[in-house]
Q: What sequence folds into this?
């Protein structure tokens, strides 16, 4: 349910409505726009049908939200959301590029990659300190040591950091080092983790699960927002289909579709979506043309010796060339790099 307030609604009137909603055992979520304020109400909507709030001063109308995802929907917020990650804004006119290795391996290599992607125009460094792997015998990440390496590169280069958190117990630790908490595809429906990062003050990058529908994806984002964190970024990273020529099938029609259904920013991961480095640049350009707010790609100085995902990682020179191509596409669709 959405409570739409009059443009001239006072703070006292808004506070009174919020108090009333809380007293009904419901959860009010306030969204302040340029022209007016709306209050999303989470909980049993039958209560509001009995207790009419339209009679309260400052209320213009009360509307049901038809989608199962309430706070994520365009019905709740018509304007695009912009997420601020320590000064880097995701969802505005500027296309944001996140780049770095799949796994943080050592400080020297990470620093070299960080300097290279920064020089090419990336603003956020990606790198896994905790790695979810199919095999329990594969490299699982350096843990806090990897987080310290990421922090050192940020201090040197100014790049913001995005890294994955896999366990509710690790959220406070990862929060201390990162600017964006990533929830990976395998954890998209780890509801306890979603609620935990929803309590965080840090932005959340939520990746689509490998077999998730758009509805399931948006419902997972709803967990984050309903816990209080509206700084959520959605990431299309490919889904599993019958096709085996690529690692996954990069579902680019998800970008404009999600943009139609939700106000949240959307980025694309062509590295995981294709699993082939020579397809990453083309799919990055296609993602920007489709309306994505950014891309997240894997870059490594020596992919042959990468601890993970070397086959889909770009060399720094290839990444630099990709960035030049992205600039042209961004300009063509009224955006900029």
A:
């Amino acid at each position: 349910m959405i409570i739409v307030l009059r443009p001239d609604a006072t703070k006292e009137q808004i506070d009174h409505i919020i108090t009333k909603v809380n007293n009904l055992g419901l959860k009010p979520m306030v969204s302040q726009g340029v022209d007016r304020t709306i209050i999303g109400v989470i909980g049993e909507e039958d209560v509001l049908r009995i207790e009419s709030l339209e009679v309260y001063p400052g209320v213009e109308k009360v509307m049901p939200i038809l989608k199962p995802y309430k706070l994520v929907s365009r019905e709740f917020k018509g304007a695009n959301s912009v997420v601020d990650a320590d000064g880097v804004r995701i969802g505005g006119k500027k296309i944001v590029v996140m780049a770095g290795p799949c796994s943080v391996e050592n400080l020297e290599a990470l620093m070299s990659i960080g300097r290279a992607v920064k020089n090419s125009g990336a603003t956020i460094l990606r790198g896994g300190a905790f790695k979810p792997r199919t095999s329990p015998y594969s490299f699982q990440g350096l843990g806090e040591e990897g987080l310290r390496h990421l922090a050192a590169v940020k201090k040197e280069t100014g790049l913001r950091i995005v890294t994955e958190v896999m366990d509710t117990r690790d959220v406070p630790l990862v929060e201390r080092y990162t600017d964006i908490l990533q929830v990976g595809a395998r954890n998209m429906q780890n509801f306890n983790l979603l609620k935990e990062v929803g309590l965080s003050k840090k932005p959340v990058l939520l990746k689509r699960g490998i077999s998730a529908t758009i509805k399931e994806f948006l419902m997972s984002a709803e967990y984050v927002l309903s816990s209080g964190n509206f700084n959520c970024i959605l990431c299309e990273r490919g889904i599993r289909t019958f096709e085996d020529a690529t690692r996954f099938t990069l579902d680019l029609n998800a970008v404009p579709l999600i943009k139609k259904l939700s106000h949240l920013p959307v980025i694309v991961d062509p590295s995981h979506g294709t699993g082939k480095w020579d397809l990453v640049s083309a799919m990055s350009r296609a993602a920007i043309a489709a309306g994505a707010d950014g891309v997240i790609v894997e870059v490594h100085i020596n992919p042959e010796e990468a601890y993970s995902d070397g086959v889909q990682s770009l060399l720094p020179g290839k990444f630099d060339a990709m960035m030049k191509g992205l600039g042209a596409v961004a300009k063509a669709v009224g955006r900029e790099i």
